[in-house]
Amino acid sequence: MMSRTPLILLACGSFNPITNMHMRLFELARDHLQKTGRYQVIEGIMSPVNDDYRKKGLVSARHRIAMAKLALETSDWIRVDPWESEQETWTETVKVLRGAATNLRSGDPTYKGFDLAQLQLKHHYNESLRLLQSKKELMKNKWPIERSTEDPLSYQHSVLPELKLLCGADFLQTFKTPNLWKEEHIKEIVEKFGLVCISRAGSDPAQYISESDLLTQFQHNIFLVKEWIQNEISATQIRYALCRGLSVKYLIPDSVISYIAHHNIYTEESERKNEGDLLQPLKLHNTTVNPLND
Ligand SMILES: Nc1ncnc2c1ncn2[C@@H]1O[C@H](COP(=O)(O)OP(=O)(O)OP(=O)(O)O)[C@@H](O)[C@H]1O
Ligand SMILES: NC(=O)c1ccc[n+]([C@@H]2O[C@H](COP(=O)(O)O)[C@@H](O)[C@H]2O)c1
Ligand SMILES: [Zn+2]
């Protein structure tokens, strides 16, 4: 049997708040990649954007992280990573990917030297990974990486997982928004990492790729995944519904609904946050238009 490349999916975004669809993105992507026969998706990471991104209505990362953690309690393979939100300022997405890749290389015990035999036993692996994450310190020396090479069960291949950026089709479309992305960053994302893009009503990612020389050049590293059941949940619509006192049950997890109610997160006032402000990436590029905050 040909061995599969271990793969980690990383999604960047506001997650304001996390919705069921954000979690579905990971499930759809994993199914698609596993079906290629080439990959073993071992982990999903959600990286909520820093408050300094300055998007209209963006509530504090402390709350967005807490809500994402609550929502992901039921997942045995997707986790939220607060690193990006804890930085002093907004971090460009390619740097988030670079940071995650450095962790993979520099001995984060979660990833070092995968035991491929273990990887075949996905459930067992996920269980170990969970244990590892919650008791990282305790477990440091117990994960197969540290196992003796004499151990017949240990196949030390030292395979580093690939890291791919997971997004929805509207995210891909923002690549062409003037001054939002640096061309060399887009190139690095599709050349060094790779993209997994989930379809979304109103966006045609295949056409968009064909219109871009750069994206066409690295098409082999862009996976387009067709959502087999259309699900147009949007975090903005969720916030609007909450402000109007409408039910959002079955669109976001109950635990997140309770958290929002308890902390009174989404109000007319919170919707006015960063109003009229420039998105940080546009500010950095010194422009006067702000297509996303209107
Ligand atoms: N319904 C959806 N279908 C496909 N992709 C989605 C969907 N909802 C969110 N995404 C993707 O999830 C990632 C995070 O998105 P984001 O936090 O902006 O959520 P959102 O629901 O689009 O919020 P907002 O409405 O505030 O823009 C992005 O890559 C986005 O494209
Ligand atoms: N140049 C860049 O790296 C760049 C530009 C715009 C948005 N982004 C990222 O894309 C995501 C967009 O999130 P929203 O769809 O919620 O606006 C955020 O994580 C943001 O940091 C990155
Ligand atoms: Zn969005």
Automatic annotation (TrEMBL):
Any one GO BP annotation for this protein? response to wounding
Supply the EC number(s): 2.7.7.1, 2.7.7.18
Q: Name one GO molecular function term.
A: nicotinate-nucleotide adenylyltransferase activity
Instruction: Determine if ATP-binding is one of this entry's keywords.
Output: yes
InterPro entries hit by this protein: Cyt_trans-like, Euk_NMN_adenylyltrnsfrase, NadD/NMNAT, NMNAT_euk, Rossmann-like_a/b/a_fold
Predominant location category: nucleus
Pathway-wise, it operates in: Cofactor biosynthesis; NAD(+) biosynthesis; deamido-NAD(+) from nicotinate D-ribonucleotide: step 1/1; Cofactor biosynthesis; NAD(+) biosynthesis; NAD(+) from nicotinamide D-ribonucleotide: step 1/1
One Pfam family name from the record?
A: CTP_transf_like
**Segments traversing the membrane:** none
Q: Where is the Cytidyltransferase-like domain?
A: 10-239
Is RNA-binding there in the keyword field?
no
Q: Which GO terms describe its cellular component?
A: mitochondrial matrix; nucleus
Q: Per the similarity annotation, which family is this?
A: Belongs to the eukaryotic NMN adenylyltransferase family.
The record's subunit annotation is: Homohexamer. Interacts with ADPRT/PARP1.
Protein name listed in UniProt:
Nicotinamide-nucleotide adenylyltransferase
Organism of origin: Aquila chrysaetos chrysaetos
Q: Kindly list the organism's lineage.
A: Eukaryota, Metazoa, Chordata, Craniata, Vertebrata
Whichever gene encodes this chain, its name is NMNAT3
